[in-house]
Amino acid sequence: MTSSSMPEVDEVGRRAAEILDKMQDHPAYGRLQSSSMRYSTCWATFTGYPAISRWSLERDAAPLLDEALRVLALKAAVFELSGGDEHAAELLVPAPVDEMIHAVLAQFTVMTRLQSDLGVVFPHATELEEFTYTHGGVTDAYYAAAGWGEQPLRYWLDSAEVNRRLNLLNEHYQAAGLGRDGRSHDFDFDLNEPVGAGVSG
Q: 178: which strand partners?
């Protein structure tokens, strides 16, 4: 979701690039990197990372982390330059990048320290999230203004393409005995049921 009056593109780009540089120079940055990627092995949805073609944690975790940190810097810049407008700062991003953002924000101690030391806020409000990202919007304009080059299209997927891929994934999920989007199943582990024995909605 975006506010009706968003900060100027060039201003956000400059400030976001500065925030990211300061994050990377911070003594806790190495810990943030390693802990965020480690977290990816113990928490993942069925609708974020799996939307990436031939998804591999080993290959994709590091570049996805780069994208997540860039988005967090953009969100922090928008939040600051909009006078603390959470709606404005909740930029539209693709599902795979959003999932890695959650992994970064789960590193609460490190992120709290970064916020305090850098004097910024990394806003995130789940109730304001919308999964309607499309190429060419304000998020892309801010990203380009920060000077980070081309967005990797492997991860920056339009919402329509994500939805198409999720429909295909759900066919596989249901064939394996999982409900839509992996949100349910009827496996009874006390009965040692084989995989595929039950499907729930």
A: 185
Please count the CA atoms within 13 angstroms of the CA of 70 that sit on its side-chain side: 24
Distance, CA of 43 to CA of 61 (rounded, Å): 13
Query: pTM of the prediction?
Result: 0.87
Q: What is the secondary structure of 115-145 as a DSSP string? A: HHHHT------GGG------TTSHHHHHHHH
Residue with tokens 């801010």: 142
In tens, the pLDDT along 20-72 reads: 999 999 999 999 988 887 755 556 677 788 889 998 888 998 999 999 999 99
- Mean pLDDT confidence for 145-153: 97
Q: Which residue ranges make up each domain of the chain?
A: 9-145, 159-191
